[in-house]
Amino acid sequence: MSVAAPVHAPEAQAPPVRSGRVVRLGRVSGVVRWRDLAVPLVALIALVLVSAVSMGRGDFPIGVVDVLRTLAGLGEGPQEFIVLELRAPRVVVGVLVGLALGMAGALFQTFARNPLASPDTLGITTGASAGAVAAIVLSGGTSAGAVLGGLGIPLAALLGALTTGFLLFLLTWRAGIDGYRLVLVGIALWAMGTALTDWLLTNAEIYDAASAYVWITGSLNARTWDDALPLALALVVLLPAALATSRLLAVLQFGDDTARGLGVRLAPTQTAVVLLAVGLVAFAVSAAGPIAFVSLIVPQIAVRLTGGARPPLLASGLLGALLVVGADLVTRTVLPEALPVGILTAAIGAPYLLWLLVRGRRRFT
């Protein structure tokens, strides 16, 4: 019951109204606020610089300027091979995964009006982990395992995430989707996915269990352009569609009854938001494993930086990319030994989750 406390609190009051400049383009008008533009711009610049630093670190160090020149097509032969073929795929996958997870977290938290709503707590990443672990552990052992093994780990993870997302949608739907019910059903699915993963690991051979543990921590190690391409193609469709829901999400913040009164078709809008968020998470996890807590903490950082009433989608995506690439750089260069990036993001996100729970309990009491 302690988790349910923060759910109803945001619905009791309307989001604060912030001042800004009204911009009109024909029949379309909107309010533009400088922080809504400044935060994504600064995040984008920081992301480019951190990505360049990451591409330059390794056994053959390359300066940031030389990395940027190489990316612009002005590099020399050896540098082009090292940057574009060996190091760029890892960074690009990190950027795309961070974008997807950050925007998915913003969609879930805005829709549910709950800062605890994220793919991690709703069981979607756990479902992806169960699918990937099943592909690793059961491959060749049974007919179902042979099918999963034939799909490969990324596709098995994608299937597990989509299946969990479908169950989340199916069990939550009651002539619409309620944010309170969404969180409760998600926690139940998370518990089921965790239990299934633990059972698979308990019955696995030692070498299969070791391989599975590496994947479920979330890592960018040994990523290639083959890992980046499917994710990039998916995001070409999903990211613009998610950004297109921004105005509808702003209306949903005022509650379901108000949204209906303002002419929003509630059921189709809710369905589209949930499906977009599940799709973003599914493809991100299939590419790099379940990198923990990115989608939980990044939207809340973005909403505090922009000073808004809800997590901004674009800023959340760019900050998510910055967090993933920056955490990967830290694990490779600062820590005594290289670790999967998911370990560092979990070390950051777990205390934040505890703070959210304590803060919500204090509000309730």
Automatic annotation (TrEMBL):
Chief localization: membrane
CDD domains: TM_ABC_iron-siderophores_like
Gene Ontology biological-process entries: siderophore-iron import into cell
Domain of life: Bacteria
Cross-referenced InterPro entries: ABC_BtuC-like (IPR037294), ABC_transptr_permease_BtuC (IPR000522)
A GO CC term assigned to this protein in UniProt: plasma membrane
Compartments reported by the entry: Cell membrane
Keyword check for Lipid biosynthesis: no
Membrane-topology annotation of the record: Multi-pass membrane protein
Residues annotated as transmembrane: 37-56, 91-109, 121-140, 146-170, 182-201, 228-252, 273-301, 338-358
A Pfam short name: FecCD
UniProt GO molecular function: transmembrane transporter activity
Keywords noted in UniProt: Cell membrane, Membrane, Transmembrane, Transmembrane helix, Transport
Entry's family note: Belongs to the binding-protein-dependent transport system permease family. FecCD subfamily.
The name this protein goes by in its record: Iron complex transport system permease protein
